Amino acid sequence: MQVSVQGRFFPAVMAGFLVIFAGCNSAKPIAGSVPVSGTVTFNGQPLEQGEVWFAPESGGKGQPATGQIKNGKFTMVTTASSPAVVAGKYKVSIISNKPFTPPKLGTPPNPNAKFEPESLIPKKYNDIKTSGLEVDVTAATSSLTFALSGE
User: What is the model's pLDDT at position 22?
Assistant: First the structure.
């Protein structure tokens, strides 16, 4: 007996895509959100690339948010359609890894190789539990600076 899931699966997938794409054309901030941007430096120099992550403090209001770092600058977004951060207290993590270089063509694969990205900053900043970074986003928040240091 062969069962076709295409009949039930395809409409659900298409409905999901329509919801996603419908939200892509509107960039309306979530109620109570604040536009947030800023800079990230490491040992006094702009961090070339990476990501800033905001996680709401437990029990606090807010929504997770992220921002791409390019040449030391970032702008936070809560969702694809909300270019802002919901006001509240957040724990912050910052990730910046060396770009991955794939092996040269014709190189045999190594079954024992484990891929672990090489962090360009101390790994403590990669986790909200160890970064020591926090921020309180209020209506007055507009620009943030994260000055990272270490070996």
Answer: 42
The model carries a pTM of 0.72
Domain 27-148 has CATH 3.40.50.2000: no
Give burial (CB, 10 Å; 0-12/13-18/19+) of 93.
Answer: buried
Contacts 24+ apart (CB under 8 A), 9-14: none
In the chain, where are the structural domains located? Answer: 27-148
Using CA atoms, how far apart are residues 21 and 124, in angstroms rounded to an integer?
36
- Nearest alpha-carbon partner for 56 in 68, 48, 65, 47: 65
Instruction: Determine the average pLDDT of the residues in 118-133.
Output: 95
How far, in Å, CA of 88 to CA of 21, rounded? 28
> pLDDT for 9-27, tens place per residue?
434 444 444 344 444 445 5
For 49, other C-beta atoms within 10 Å of its C-beta total 16
Alpha carbons 54 and 141: distance in angstroms, whole number: 14
